[in-house]
Amino acid sequence: MKNIKRSHFFTLLVFFIGATTIAQTELKGKVADFLTYQPIESASVYIKNTTVGSITNADGNFVLKVPQRYLSDTLVISSIGYKSFNVIIADFENGNDIFLEEDVASLDEVVIVADPRPTTGNGIVQKAIEKLSSNLPEQAYLLKGFLRHKERNKKEYKWLVESAITLYDSSYAAGAKDNLKINVDETRKSYDLRDIDSLFTYSAYLKSIGSKAGNVSRNSVKTSALIDAIKWNDSRVNGLDNLFKGKLNLIRNSNVTGALLGKDVLEKHQFHLDTILVDNGRKLYKIKISKGDDFVGLNTPGIYNEGFEPKGWIYIYYDNYAIKKVEYELIAGSDVQKKRSKSLYDTQNIHKLTITYREYDGKMYPNYIYYETPKLVNIGDRSSDRSKTESEPGFDKGAQYYYTIQEILFNDIIQDPALIRKELQENAWSADIFLSKPYNASFWKDYNVLLESKEEEKLIQDLSKRASLYKE
Question: What is the CATH code for 16-100?
Fold first, then answer.
């Protein structure tokens, strides 16, 4: 009888969720600076006291699909350093520009605290790391999100996959390796042209499995074997499992041995207090990240990922030391890494990461992640004689060097234990974005996604056309 009641409960729950998401209102707008009229990228756009939200794209534009039950609630648009914009959703004028004014913080009031307040960047960051256990979720939760995974050179896209994903995390206290899971729920816009120029990857793949590469050509390699090599290469650094369970998940994984923002953080980093800003009415420290006495290393299995110097910014709330945002880059620092990076990637900036958090129920949850890194492909000579190649007719340096970008927008937080248990049991928990899935039009109709910029729209249209021709 209990099982029947439980099944009936889930049936009603699924029906209720489905019914409430069918009727939605689509909000559109552009967010810009009040004085300069310049678009504000990555501004938060969300419904107050809910988990529904999005961000603006590079052009300052956003689209947010709002369930009908929230029409009487407040829409909040905020960005660090600006005064927030608030309006009842039913009164929002669709398509209008929203101009945000700069907001200047003041430290002239007296703040009574139980312990001495740190006054240096190093001290503030160490305090924030100490308080992660109280500022990050203590209970299990699910995040529903949208992934845009793209690969391009300086001229065009070569690969694009967009997916709906679910992330499960048991809590900050538990290690991510065994207590964090990712599932790819649905996929759309899957275009892939990489198999025509990824022979360098194939050679590296053969070496990893103990085979001799020799001289390989596209005609001599089966497409299925090349796809295996591409999957292997992507999983080494760029896979979702690596991103969430590895060192680059800076805040979530700061409690593991060897963490970049762990107990020995000051050995490889130094932090300098720059200024005080405001975010949605709350003060926060803006702190500069610079190099310490030692190089940063990622210890990535099977790939040389050592000898970096960090730089960037970290934003920490003044009142509770919760980390709001991290902008983190790893630049080639050692002589070995500088030579390698220049030769293979034509850049010294090897890892670029942005993580933004959003507060809900007094805890900080991941809201937006941007990760960029160069990639190895085979489209031209990369030896010391490359100068000769570059002088040859038809050589295009802009098409030679590739990089991958992963963007993830989390637009819903689920804390209900019953729903969490249900998804844990039913999901395959596969983070493989290559798995072929049929396109689910009804699902994507009501799902919040990252809005493409005008440049991205053009590149994606071009990629889709070339993909169709290639398949024919």
Answer: 2.60.40.1120
